[in-house]
Amino acid sequence: MGVVKGLSRAGQGGRLRIELPGVAGELKNGDSLSVDGVCLTVVDINGGVAGFDVSHETLKRSTLGELRPGDRVNLELSLAVGDRMGGHFVQGHVDGTGAIDKIESNPGDCIIWFSVGPELSQSMIEKGSVAVDGISLTVVDLTPNKFSVAIIPYTLEHTSLGTKKAGDRVNIETDMLGKWVKKLQSAWSGRNEPQDTGLTEESFRAKGFE
Fold it and tell me: Does CATH place domain 2-77 in 2.40.30.20?
């Protein structure tokens, strides 16, 4: 985790400064870093503190605009070619935000329910992947506007989820496969006017997909 040093606004964007214990030595200007699940670019780094320019779109779509000095954020270096993959592919392109609905603590286990809009839940499936503040998690239960995940003690100890409470907002990135399926379904139902790619429901059925 990193510690927020400050967020200064400049026009509709801003400059976010974060102390990066443990990873600062691996970064240089121009490198990418996931901050609470948002892919940002290092624009300056000095003494273990890095600066990131944050666009209006990022501030609007994520929780970064709500950060205050002292807040802890999840950090993850970019996946390098050839690295071992320990979760699902997370692009750092946040789809929107959700809020913690309730936390059910059990011995050795914790279930957290999140409230989200239907535009996000429609891209999820039970036992599918979802990123919450950049953490690769598995959907346990799903309703039209809520989903739950099971959190192990290690995750609570090493990420900001261990400090969250009901009502706190989080960044949500749905699985990229779900987004493509949703896009194709929308095209087939006539809600969009896609370019002619040659992909049709009949062509998928001919290949054995049902």
Answer: yes
CA 202, chain centre distance (Å): 34
Q: Give the tokens for residue 182.
A: 């949703």
Does position 192 have pLDDT exceeding 70, yes or no? Answer: no
Q: How many CB atoms lie within 10 A of CB 85?
A: 8
Instruction: Report how far residue 124's alpha carbon sits from residue 118's, in angstroms, rounded to the nearest whole number.
Output: 10
Coil, helix or strand at residue 51: strand
Q: Look-up: residue for tokens 């261990």? A: 162
Q: Against a cut of 0.90, is the pTM above it?
A: no
Contacting residues for 155 by C-beta, under 8 A, at least 6 apart: 135, 161, 162
Identity at 83, one-letter amino acid code: D
- Written out in words, the top-level CATH class of the domain with range 96-181 is mainly beta
Question: Could you read off the pLDDT of 22-57 as tens digits, one per residue?
Answer: 888 889 999 999 999 999 999 999 989 999 999 999
Q: What angle do CA 70, 75, 42 make, to 5 degrees?
A: 90
Q: Using alpha carbons only, give the angle 183, 186, 191 rounded to the nearest 5 degrees.
A: 135
